[in-house]
Specification:
This protein has 3 helices and 4 strands, in the order αβββαβα. It is an alpha+beta fold. A 4-stranded antiparallel β-sheet has the order 3-2-1-4. A hairpin with a 2-residue loop joins strand 1 and strand 2.
Length: 123
């Protein structure tokens, strides 16, 4: 019985990794050079206190992660009413503080931040 659980766990871990990579690949632009610009400060990760996170309405983000019917959803902007993508990650399994941050919206400046957030919540 233990080996069945081990195999199932390994299969689930592999599927989560494959899903995260496929999702990240879907958001990566196809061979478009990035415009030269000054480095911007990193968006605060979900593990920081909520008072240190700038509300998504006050800044321009490429993506915004929010709770959508109990799942983590990715919106194309802070003003978007419909999500661009809804994940399979249940927000009810997250700590209370992370659920509160997702209710407010977590701003993501680029695909790298999006991938990091999804990997954090997917693990």
């Amino acid at each position: 019985m233990k080996s069945v659980r081990t195999r199932l766990f390994a299969l689930c871990a592999g599927l989560c990794a494959a899903f995260s990579m496929a999702l990240a690949a879907a958001f990566v632009p196809q061979s478009q050079p990035a415009p030269a610009r000054e480095p911007e400060p990193q968006a605060a990760p979900p593990s920081l206190p909520a008072e240190n996170i700038q509300p998504v309405e006050q800044a321009v983000y490429r993506y915004v992660a929010r709770d959508y019917n109990g799942k983590i959803a990715i919106y194309p902007s802070a003003q978007a009413l419909q999500p661009q993508y809804v994940t399979d990650f249940d927000t009810s399994a997250l700590p209370q503080r992370d659920r509160e941050l997702l209710q407010q919206g977590i701003g993501l400046r680029d695909e790298e931040e999006l991938q990091m957030l999804l990997e954090d919540y997917g693990s």
